């Protein structure tokens, strides 16, 4: 079972990863976006980590709702609302339970991804964060490691796509050949989930 400590580790591991990869995310965003994806997410997840140190949310859902509030209030552009929606809907779906199982997390995360698709109007194949998140959620039934691999493969698969949503869609065919930064950062989020899962298993 996964408790609040597990979800704190997930968010903290994400913050560390985003901080480490911020320059790469911004470099990916430079040719097809506003060249601020890394710095925006770095600011947001730094705020999440700081809030988790100050406050002590005692359920999985409460951890994610706190993270969502921080991201929505501190991250500029589309990333704040999209990541905030993902974590808020996932947190709400988990409810007030003190512990949740992996199947419950998978179902809640799927509801979060569905909410992101509804908000942004994106579907798989549009060259967005959805291209990493949907395969990750589909693979969660086979474990956190499978979800991580699926997210990373999904992010890489955006490179030959033409963007149909978001800032990159304005470039038309010029968006082809660039890995999507949102899918890349989403893969980092899922990799951090796998990292938290490995810690929980004592690996």
Overview of the molecule:
The protein is mainly alpha-helical. 67% of the residues lie in helices and 2% in strands. The chain is globular, with a radius of gyration of 16 Å. The two termini are 16 Å apart. The relative contact order is 0.15.
Nutshell version of this structure?
It contains eight helices and two strands; from the N terminus they run βααααβαααα. It is an all-alpha fold.
Structural topology:
Blueprint: E1 2-3, H1 4-29, H2 37-54, H3 60-74, H4 79-94, E2 99-100, H5 102-120, H6 130-139, H7 144-156, H8 181-200
Antiparallel strand pairs: 1-2
Helix pairs in contact: 1-2, 1-3, 1-8, 2-3, 3-4, 4-5, 5-6, 6-7, 6-8, 7-8
Shape: globular
Determine the fraction of residues in helical runs and give it as a percent range.
55-70%
How many domains? The number is: 1
Which CATH top level class fits?
A: Mainly Alpha
Percent of residues in beta strands: under 5%
Which descriptors would you attach to this protein?
DhaL_dom_sf; two-stranded antiparallel sheet; 203 residues; single chain; DhaK_L_YcgS; 8 helices; mainly alpha; Serine Threonine Protein Phosphatase 5, Tetratricopeptide repeat
């Amino acid at each position: 079972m996964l408790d609040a400590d597990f979800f704190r580790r997930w968010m903290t591991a994400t913050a560390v990863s985003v901080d480490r990869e911020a320059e790469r995310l911004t470099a990916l965003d430079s040719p097809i976006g506003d060249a601020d994806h890394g710095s925006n997410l770095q600011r947001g997840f730094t705020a999440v980590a700081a809030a988790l140190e100050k406050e002590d949310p005692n359920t999985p859902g409460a951890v994610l709702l706190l993270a969502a509030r921080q991201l929505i209030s501190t991250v500029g552009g589309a990333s704040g609302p999209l990541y905030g929606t993902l974590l808020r809907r996932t947190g709400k779906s988990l409810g007030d339970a003190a512990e949740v199982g992996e199947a419950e997390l998978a179902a809640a995360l799927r509801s979060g991804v569905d909410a992101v698709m509804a908000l942004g109007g994106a579907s798989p194949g549009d060259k967005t964060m959805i291209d990493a998140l949907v395969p990750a959620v589909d693979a969660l039934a086979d474990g956190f490691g499978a979800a991580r691999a699926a997210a990373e493969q999904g992010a890489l698969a955006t490179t030959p796509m033409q963007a149909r949503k978001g800032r990159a869609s304005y470039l038309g065919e010029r968006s082809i050949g660039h890995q999507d930064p949102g899918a890349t950062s989403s893969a980092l989020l899922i990799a951090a989930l796998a990292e938290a899962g490995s810690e929980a298993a004592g690996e």
